[in-house]
Amino acid sequence: MAKIIGGVTTSHIPAIANAMANGLEETPYWKPFFDGYPPVRDWLNEQKPDVIILFYNDHGLEFFIDKKPTFAMGVADEYYNSDEGWGIPTIPPVTGESELSWHIANSLVEDGFDMTICQEMKVDHGLTVPLNLMWPGHNYGHVKVIPVCINCEQHPMPQPKRTLALGQAIGRAVESFEDDLKVVVFGTGGMSHQLDGERAGFINRAFDIECLDKLVSDPESLTQYSNYDLVELGGAQAVELNMLIAMRGALLGEVTELHRNYHAPISNTGSGLMLLENK
Fold this sequence. Notes:
Pfam families: LigB. By secondary structure, the chain is an alpha/beta fold. The chain has one domain (3-278): Protocatechuate 4,5-dioxygenase, Chain B. 33% of the residues lie in helices and 20% in strands.
């Protein structure tokens, strides 16, 4: 049977890709951020997962404001990236896992989630940056990826209680898949951050640390927040916490925290890296 062996939270801001492309990892600004990643890379290389289920939000490459699904997922054999206007180099194609993807899609619909199911899907920096962080130099070709996209840009957006439930439903679907696969779930996005308006540059470190703690020990408590609460406590873009919450939902039981690195600000964003082992 397929088994989710762990989960990872990570930032996906496009400035990270530019820093890697320009060899800036050891510069004073970037070093505290990149220094957090070797333990997670080592664990992934040791565990050798077959599949990554990756929660992210699309920033206008595949879905724009005229068509914005609440939840979307890919079921393709391959996913392509393209120029988003950030100056990030386009990465090689990402390999999909269509059999498990279709199994999850069918299971989610049976569970009451009206997914937008994509047989073709361009993937943006929300997905490509985490892959390059974990396998630098585009060395992710050995692992298959299932993209799951959550709307964090345009209201109405799903609430934390719904994204946790989505993660739990995906966790159940994976565990019911008959093939022997090792799966790791990524929850990607910034923690507290506001990129525009009167509070531009706002970061709430205390709230970010509290959320990381609760992701480990009490994820249900995060469902007390509405998206408006997240905006008030963490800034307009803090709704990206929903991807981290969905990741934790997919880890159905207790978890062990193996590694954590919190750093802020990085590109005006609170960045929380965490590695959780699924018990």
